[in-house]
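Um, can you check?
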Amino acid sequence: QEQMVESGGGLVQAGGSLRLSCAASGRTFNIHRMGWFRQAPGKEREFVAAIIWSGGSTSYADSVKGRFAMSRDIAKNMVYLQMNSLKPEDTAVYYCAVHGGLQYNYWGQGTQVTVSS
């Protein structure tokens, strides 16, 4: 059974850094890309970053460009999100997801990131 597990969340002061990890395990995933999303209380889930699995190119939401960096380890089926210069508005539950070519169809349970001012 496919499983996505995020880790690395926590409480950090504004201006600090965190590194999130996400492991995809189970049967062989057909991974076209992997993405990070986040959902703050009372808000819709929003896109944060994505990485194309084969080529490694990345894309970011405007709100995190220049502060966040996504990377991958193909051998381990893992992705990472390095988050620097964190702001209170980055507070949310962060989710990783696998895109199989048509849609994001596998999601993790999420990891909480809280940035204090």
The mean pLDDT is 94.
